[in-house]
Amino acid sequence: MLLSILAISASLAHTPVDTEVRVQGADSFSMAAEAVVDASLDDVAELLGDCEATAAWFPQIVHTERVGTACVGQSAMPWPLKARSWSLTSEVEASDAGLVRHFAYVDGSGNLDDVQGRWVLSTEGTQTRVRWEARIDLGLQVQSSIVGWGTRQVVDQVMPALEAELRRRDRMADAVAGL
């Protein structure tokens, strides 16, 4: 299984990905990933705003749906931990360089204590620089080495998975245009 994940990750990564992981105790961590992807800023922004599609490409997210203005979802956790459920709100703002999509946990909406983060998008020629930052409080005590390992599994896969989904959408659009 681990070999499969490594092989898939290696085959998806077309651009270098910079990642950061910081474990902050037994229940909280922050992470970031950044890469330049071969897609327009508009295409990346559209994908990131598509709540229902998130579970199809974002690592460890097994279910998402739009409920009102929130994106409601569930993230898989390694045994013996229970899946984490959540609702996130988001807002988009223009920046000098592009767009920023902030997201935040809706208090009491699941079994996490908190989630805060953002996607920062900027244009670089015909490509888009994408930076994802998140701080998560799991709402339960877990050994920091396990939190670090699990977080690393996600953060290393986010950008390759995003890029793979953007390529899949491009192929679908090309196929429809060819009809």
Fold topology:
Blueprint: H1 2-12, E1 18-23, E2 28-37, H2 41-48, H3 54-57, E3 61-67, E4 70-75, E5 84-94, E6 98-105, E7 114-124, E8 127-137, H4 144-177
Antiparallel strand pairs: 1-2, 2-8, 3-4, 4-5, 5-6, 6-7, 7-8
Structure report:
This protein has 179 residues and is an alpha+beta fold. The chain has a single domain, classed as Alpha-D-Glucose-1,6-Bisphosphate, Chain A, domain 4, CATH 3.30.530.20. It has 4 helices and 8 strands. The protein has helices at 2-12, 41-48, 54-57, 144-177; strands at residues 18-23, 28-37, 61-67, 70-75, 84-94, 98-105, 114-124, 127-137. Strands 1-2-8-7-6-5-4-3 form an 8-stranded antiparallel β-sheet. A hairpin with an 8-residue loop joins strand 4 (70-75) and strand 5 (84-94). Residues 1-13 have low confidence and may be disordered.
Features:
Alpha-D-Glucose-1,6-Bisphosphate, Chain A, domain 4; 32% helix; eight-stranded antiparallel sheet; single chain; 179 residues; alpha+beta
Query: Termini separation (Å)?
Result: 38 Å
Shape annotation: globular
Top CATH class = Alpha Beta
| Mean pLDDT, all residues | 82
Order of strands in the sheet with most strands = 1-2-8-7-6-5-4-3
Radius of gyration, Cα only, in angstroms? 16 Å
Give helix and strand order, one letter per element, not per position. Answer: HEEHHEEEEEEH
Low-confidence runs of at least 5 consecutive residues: 1-13
Tally of discrete structural domains = 1
Number of strand segments: 8
Helix content: 25-40%
CATH architecture: 2-Layer Sandwich
The fold-level CATH name is Alpha-D-Glucose-1,6-Bisphosphate, Chain A, domain 4
The fraction of residues assigned to DSSP E strands is: 35-45%
Count of separate DSSP helical elements: 4
Classify the secondary structure makeup into a structural class. alpha+beta
Please name the fourth-level CATH homologous superfamily.
START domain
> How would you characterize the largest beta sheet?
8 strands, antiparallel
